Amino acid sequence: MRRRAFVTGSLAGLAVGSLPVGRAAQAADQIVLGSAISQTGKYAREGKFYVDAYALTVEAINKAGGVKVGGRPYQLALKLYDDQSDPNLSVRLFTRLVTSDRVNFLLGPYSSGITIPASAVSEKYEIPMIQGGGASGKIFDRGYKYIFGTLPKAEFYFQSAIEAAVKLTPPVRTAALLYSNEAFDRSVADGARQWLKEWKVDKVYDEEYQPATQDFTSILAVIKSKGPDLVLVAGHVENALNFIRQSQAADVNPKMVVFTVGPPTADFRKTLGKAAELAYGITPWLPDMEVGGEVFASASQFAKQFQERFGYEADYHVAAGAACVLALKVAVEHASSLEPKKVRDALAALDVETLYGRVKFEPTGQIAMGQVLIQIQDGKVVPVYVSGKMLRKPVYPTPKWAERK
Amino acid sequence: MLTLQLLINGILLGGLYGIMALGMSLIWGVMNIVNIAHGALIMLGAYLTFWTFTLWGWDPFAALPLTILILFVYGYLLQRLVLNLVVRAQLFLTLLITFGVEVVMVNLARMFWSADLRQVTPAYAGANFSVGGLTIPYVRLWVFVTTVILSVSFLLLLERTRLGRAIRATSEELRAARLTGIPVTHIYAVTFGLGAALAGAAGGLWGMLFPITPIMGGALTLKSFVVAVLGGLGTMMGAIVGGLVLGLAESFSATYLGPTYPNAISFGLVVLILILRPAGILGRRS
Question: Which of A29, A32, B239, B247 could pair covalently with B21 via S-S, beta carbons 3.0-4.6 A apart?
Fold first, then answer.
């Protein structure tokens, strides 16, 4: 508490004098949402998911009558920049969005590494930022009051996977943990270590790697020599692709391999083809989940509209991005004001059902939500386990590569 | 047993690093151009393999000759029409212009082919065989064999043919080469074409093992640079040796020091070599 008071106090001090006036004086009846998001550079792929998600949701909200503030309908508008996957540029662009473009509210960038510095801008100028692209605890443990996130906590990413693994027959007894040395994946690994300890799974390998790693053959040779039942991999999609391809080539056969990213993404399954079969992944959202709310009545309806508009399948990134825009809409309506402070308080108090599920934030600003363990079966994503419930029996133990069809 | 497996992993990948660096070393040695666009040429080669595989169902190995031919022509024209403007200029200028070429190529690739990850997945992609507890992936083995064939033919071309002699002459003594009637502009373009063709071949092979993206080239330019410096600039055998050294260094450091170390080790090696043998492992002192 003391720390929070100190941080916000000093930041408020910094902000005095630089706080732009007349923010609401935008083009008549328009609420402008600003964001800098990676459209080029190493996050260009994931960045596109958010750009498209924001665009579709803004369109849909405008079509459904816009945002009603004090009985007056406002249209939403987007102001987007490309941060080129560069955290430094991101900070400059968000500062520009706030000070010279004078946008009303901020939507987040992609990746924890960029969100951490970017959120300092929203905090400094006291403009709410709601983001669906960063899940690291480091975004939320600084006592900031203006940052909200729709991705579940990184530390909880492997919770359901490890819980499920010890409940399967034969239960998993040993595990290998491999994670990239980025803020987010380190948080995932910190959490995983706790869950492994709690469920008394013996950790036989625990290493971090550089996210730019292409060749995993040496890492795989060591993992193979240790022979763990469970392998947990936290990294980027490209890492997961390489890991699967090379485990097949190196004939590494654990009972279960779980990735933080990749399996829920259609693109990933298409790129890998058959090799993706039976890989486990986690996701906070699936298109066939029974959730829904205003503007998008159901997850599947959203998924359908998205597919029609952009020609590819929406994954959880997209849904989390859409949830940001929707949460902001509802919060503005609840606040019945465009005042950043009031909207911030409305976001903190928000509890609303959306296409993404229930959006309700913890005091830190991060969504209170768990992960679904999934497995790829016949090229489709099958939900396996969530919060203590086995949803569908997985193919377990994973058959050896040589014995697969 | 683990050590032996790591040795094999390192050598199989090292061959590919060698062929990647060969093209860069050639262009650097003959024209004194540090080709920043080298990785972009590798990327282009990888995409050619991907598209011939995806659209026409060509086997990725069968696509290599076409890739090599296209990249040769592309490299020849690039040198003749663009780089020739600054040939023998200050190093800084050539760095800038090849950097510009790189930026243009990468962004065009992103425009036309999107930032999506691509992968070449022939039916035999994951196939392997075991000998005495060691696992050897077929694709990596064939990729290695191909790099050996390509390197040997390239070395023969340089050593045994009239063209090769002309290239070497131009590299060693420009004025004397001109005096003996060697068409230097043409030789430069051919050299750049050969360098690009090697990069293209490396790209085609790389694309069989790793995902393909428009931005894949940056890291590979750096790798080629490391290998070229390690082995000794301008010496063709040096690039091959440097590649093997890098492959082994990565393989062992990832295991015994931890997977975050390979880059630190490879650049550390470069510093070490530059201190102990400034001309590279096989380099001659000039």
Answer: B239
